[in-house]
Amino acid sequence: YQESRHVPITDSICRYTLNRESIIAEDASQDPLLKSHPTIGPWGIGAFMAIPMQLENGHVLGAFCAVDVKPRPWHEQDILLLKELTASVMTEIHLRMQILELKTEKDLREKTMIALSHDLRNPLSIAKMGAEVLGYGETSPEDKENLLSMISKNIDRADRMIQDLLTSSRFKAGESIPLDMTSGDIVEIVGSTVESLKKVHKKEFHLDITGEILGEWDGDRIRRIIENLAGNAVKYGDVNQRIVVSLAVHPKGIEISVNNRGPVIPQGELDNLFALFHRSESALVGSQKGWGIGLTVVRGLTQEMGGTVRVESNQESGTTFCVSIPHR
């Protein structure tokens, strides 16, 4: 009898609850849904009741069931009791999932803070070294100009790291960052950002954009979004291939996309890319360092402008991040 109760999931009575509806049958042999099921007779099921075990996202894990070997009425108190037991079980499952999620996030945060502390030292050390050399007072005008440029670039680099960390922390805490909307041409904003990226990364960028698109824009947010996406493209893309930044107009707004050739991101990893401190498996095994903050910042900045961000990655067209923003 025990062995006969092991059946494939496709033959399980509980699978009927996957549509999130409870099953309450006083006589399973006469119930329209259950009477033809192959387990009703052999298992001696008379009355049957099943309550779906549903997660907050709507996914059904299974069902909490009550069975009687003889047909019987299910009273309101019976149904309420089983629903309360199901709710208690789901509360426990939810709490355990939250504890596991918090522990995972804690571990990721600690690793990220270690990496961030280490990476912050690099630009600050370079800037400090440059300042010390200037302090000697024995530099030519050309060397002085190069040292000042080096100091400025590394201070800017450290500042971007800190800003991204602060921004991601505010989004995680549920805080919003006020929009700073000004009238202007987004083509100019995107174009100047790409020109700066060429100088910073010493990399070939192609700008696919023409004309002008006037409107109300938060220029600083848009720059930060492009800088973060371009930084990822430089890190993980093919060093011998250019990065393409495109801007297109749609009926409801504009779409900025950043495309790079290189290793494909597996489909199973795409959904978690924007989670705070998360790095894809391919990124973890690669040589490039990262903290899993940049894409969280991109998503947060985009959503606060009423926009959306998505990613596509395949062998034919490479990896493309697309940011859609309403046109005001």
Verbal overview:
The structure is a single chain. The protein has helices at residues 76-135, 141-172, 186-201, 219-236, 267-270, 281-285, 294-304, and strands at residues 23-25, 47-54, 60-68, 182-185, 205-208, 214-217, 243-250, 253-260, 308-314, 318-326. The protein is of the alpha+beta class and 328 residues long. The chain folds into three domains: 3-74, Beta-Lactamase (2-Layer Sandwich); 107-172, Signal transduction histidine kinase, dimerisation/phosphotransfer (DHp) domain (Helix Hairpins); 182-326, Heat Shock Protein 90. It has a five-stranded mixed β-sheet with strand order 5-7-8-10-9. A three-stranded antiparallel β-sheet has the order 1-2-3, covered by helices on one side. α1 (76-135) runs antiparallel to α2 (141-172), α3 packs parallel to α4 (219-236) and α4 (219-236) packs antiparallel against α7 (294-304). The radius of gyration is 29 Å and the shape is elongated. The relative contact order is 0.08.
**CATH architecture tag of the largest domain:** 2-Layer Sandwich
Mean pLDDT: 82
Tell me the structural class. alpha+beta
Tally the helices: 7
**CA-to-CA gap between the ends?**
68 Å
Shape: elongated
Strand content: 15-25%
**Overall tally of structural domains:** 3
**Major sheet:** 5 strands, mixed
SSE order, one letter for each helix or strand: EEEHHEHEEHEEHHHEE
| Spatial strand arrangement across the major sheet | 5-7-8-10-9
Count of strand segments: 10
* Rg, Cα atoms, Å: 29 Å
CATH-defined superfamily of the largest domain: Histidine kinase-like ATPase, C-terminal domain
